[in-house]
Amino acid sequence: MLILEFEGYFQDRMTTDPDPTDEKRGVSGYTFALAGEPDLDNIVHFQPDEPGVCERDFGPYGGPKVGVTVRRATLDGVHRPDLVGGKIAFVGAQLLEHNGILIREDFFVIDPFRVTLTVDGTVFLDRVDDLDPTNPKLPPEKVTGAQLQRRQPAKFTSNSAEVAHATGLPNAASVTLMANRLRRMESLKLLLDETTDPVKRIALESRIEELAIIEQWWNLSQGSPGNRPIDRRAAQLALQASGWNIDMNGEIFKSEFGADPALPWNVAFWMGGWDGDALCGYVKGTWTIPTR
Amino acid sequence: MANEITTRAELIDALRVAAELEHGLMAQYLFAVYSMKRYTYEGLDPVQLERVRRWSSSITLIARQEMEHLGLAFNLLAAVGGTPSFTRPNMPQRRDYYGKAGIKLTLTRGDLSTIKRFQHFEAPEDLLKTAKDGVIDQEAAEAWCQRKDMEIDSRADLTDLLGKVALKKHAPPLLQGAPVLSFGWDSVQQLYETIRDGFEHLDKKLGKSQLFVGKPSLQLFGGPSSPQHGTMNDLNQYGLDLIEVKDLASARQAITMILEQGEGVVVNASYLRWTHFCLFTKIRREMEEFGLGDLAARPVVPNPMTMRHPDVCPEDEVTLMTDPASVAVARLFNGSYELMLLLMLYLYSDNVRTQEQVNALMDAAFFPLMTMFVRPLAEMLTEMPAGDGLANAGPGFELNGDVLLFPTLWATWDLFQERFDALVRGFDELLAGGDPWIELPGQREEGFTTSRLWRRLEYMRTNIRRLAEDWRANWLNIGRTS
After folding, report:
1. Do the Cβ atoms of A220 and B49 come within 8 Å?
2. Contact between residue B100 and residue B177 where contact means Cβ atoms under 8 Å apart
3. Are residues B100 and B192 in the same domain?
4. Quick check: B274 contacting A, CB < 8 Å?
5. How far is B295 from B292, CA to CA, in rounded Å?
6. A32 occurs within a structural domain
7. Is residue A104 part of a domain?
């Protein structure tokens, strides 16, 4: 059995409600393709060198850097340090919901689902999963609810301590999430002070304005600082979508380490820690591959 | 002619005018924002485009809040036993359609003159007095939006403030105004203040139990007391705050919320910038400062219609679209819009019995139809030709008479199915021919043989097919939801 534990920040320049899901620039949601940036592509990028990645500058206080890598690897119980640092990719994956047409309550269907492991530029593992193994070309809008559920998370957790731990937040309390966003805003203001390029300046101004909305909402919210409802721009920093558990059933393009093609290769993971300013989130999971 | 509301019937009439007004304003705001440029191939540099994007975001927020106001007006109506209605005249209408209020119903692209008109719609009464030819004095508007009075640190403080405002006595409305009501009103502010006074008078005269006779289940609202709280159908999201109206206090609060979001008569400086009036004032200032008054929007014709409607006036302000593909898309837009209104009407009716039925209507109406069909179709129309060498087409928000409940409850679900299926057929027919838009500016994209517009329509067809099938299967094929 080959077990690969992976994690890291991914980028998904995705549209957000209530924009239509094929919106390219962002209008009524809170994610935008800002001045000088390419259109939103709605693709999950695990690696910074994938076409479509557009990492933003966060100013002096920093921010997430895209890169999902293997952190621990064992083959039949024996550590494989040579695989640690290997790059995992969900090739071309999208988090789909079609504003309630495909699925509801943001229980995103991930599709297409093709996973690769690349070490030092060489692809060692590469397999797809089909929503309908009897008809691999069937798109998500034509499959059954049961077939969709295979690719959905099982639950959402707000103020997730696991997400906070993974992303380096001191804790998952709402006040902490607010402080994080206000610190990002402060960092962007410092960056704006030293930025002269007009395109970069107006993009920064828009990001600062979006973060300022968080403060406005927070200040007008009910309750004490410990239980105030907070804007989604802050809340989603510690939101976790967990329970994706997919027995990959499709074609194998690359197989090493004695991987057994006759059995499903399981990928279990969670996604969360969504930073709407960075258009990045965090993923943590395990790819378990039976060997012959 | 009386100058106050003294009977339930008058209150219901006034609330129906308010609902009609909010519906009309919403359509005008949406028309303007859907005409605004979005892409680099439309002749703006990245900085200009980002400014226009920000204005578009502001105007869509305002339009969503007009939907909220419409919802609040419906809740006020339902609370006193009235019938919610999406009835409104087609556009355009003459400037005095609403009497002295001077609210011109017309669909025009999002240029500077349109923004000035919107600023006038949302202006507080004090500034209307100094307006010239329907244009608010910008200097006075800027000063208004920079007022600094009391501090509000929490929503509780805001609610408290709104309650105090609601108790304030206002001068009686003037005796000039729209002929559709038995009392006069000179502005939106005055209409709502008259309605508020009417609630107070009737609450005193009839008592709470006799005034608030509507069934609570006939209202739609969000937040913790709503059955949809915490789900994607929770209406209190994305800057909206729909409340239940059950007594005089909540009626006052609903009306004051409408006034404060719009005109911002008394709110403090930190909230003022989010009021509709101040947002339009800011957009106007920036359009003038950066010379984008004419460039921000596509060259969309005014009041683009697929047919002549008998209720419009003046007729010569209508633009009849003649390009066959644009007309077909406009019909799909009108069909989606009407179906959405119809589904919403059922949500306010006593015909929906179970929570499952409520969920089905909400799942189809609020998110998918509005965001995945009505809006994209409207945006696409403003990139398409109107025909006869005219400029671009647009969404006419055309209604063929009243939007009414189906008379036979047993057939309702099948009748909705027919509407969904008709939309599927409409997309199929449109996409059965060749791509008529591939030669339009910006429509060719590397790696694709069809235009951006065509591919967007294909995406919509996929979605409407799924929606129609899910309606037929009673949502059996929807994925995990909890």
Report:
1. no
2. yes
3. yes
4. yes
5. 5
6. yes
7. yes
Predicted TM-score (pTM) of this structure:
0.92
B273 and B333 housed in the same domain: no
Of B33, B446, B73, the residue nearest B242 (C-alpha): B73
Provide the number of structural domains found in chain B. 2
Q: Is the dihedral of CA A105, B371, B437, B463 positive or negative?
A: positive
Is B209 a domain residue? yes
B266 with B331, same domain: the answer is no
Does B453 lie in the same domain as B329?
A: yes
CATH number assigned to the domain comprising residue B363: 1.20.1260
B363: which chain A residues are within 8 Å (Cβ-Cβ)? 100, 104
- Residue A101 contacts B where some CB pair is shorter than 8 Å: yes
Query: By residue range, what is the domain housing residue A12?
Result: 2-153+244-289
**Has residue B231 been placed in a domain?**
yes
Q: Where are the beta strands (DSSP E) in A76-112?
A: 78-79, 87-90, 94-96, 109-111
Which of chain A's residues have a Cβ under 8 Å away from the Cβ of B257? none
Taking the CA of residue B27 and the nearest CA in chain A, the distance in Å comes to 16
pLDDT per position as a tens digit, B269-297: 666 777 889 999 999 999 999 999 999 99
Question: Using CB atoms within 10 A of its CB, is residue A64 exposed (0-12), middle (13-18) or buried (19+)?
Answer: buried
The alpha carbon of residue A131 is apart from the nearest alpha carbon of chain B, in Å, by 12
The reply to whether B297 falls in a domain is no
**Alpha-carbon A230 to chain mean position:** 21
In a domain, A274, yes or no: yes
B281 lies in the same domain as B333? no
Count the domains in chain A.
1
Same domain, B229 and B357: no
Spell out the per-residue pLDDT of chain A, length 292, in tens. Answer: 999 999 999 999 999 989 999 999 999 999 999 999 999 999 999 999 999 999 999 999 999 999 999 999 999 999 999 999 999 999 999 999 999 888 888 899 999 999 999 999 999 999 999 999 999 999 998 898 899 999 999 999 999 999 999 999 999 998 999 999 999 999 999 999 999 999 999 999 999 999 988 876 666 554 455 555 678 899 999 999 999 999 999 999 999 999 999 999 999 999 999 999 999 999 999 999 999 9
Cβ atoms of A250 and A133 closer than 8 Å: yes
With a CB-CB cutoff of 8 Å, which residues 198-257 of chain A face chain B?
Answer: 198-199, 202-203, 206, 209, 216, 219-222
Chain B closest-CA separation from residue A84 CA (Å): 34
**Whether B142 and B43 share a structural domain:** yes
Which residue is closest to B223 within chain A, CA to CA?
A: A229
What distance in Å separates the CA atoms of residue B112 and residue B118, rounded to the nearest whole number?
A: 10
Q: Which residues of A165-189 are buried (b: 16+ CB within 10 A; e: fewer)?
A: ebbebeebbbbbbbebbbebbebbe
Give a yes or no: residue A198 inside a domain: no
Q: Tell which of B289, B324, B345 closes a domain.
A: B289
Q: State the residue range of the domain holding B340.
A: 315-472
Cα–Cα distance measured from residue B355 to residue B255, given in angstroms and rounded to the nearest whole number? 28
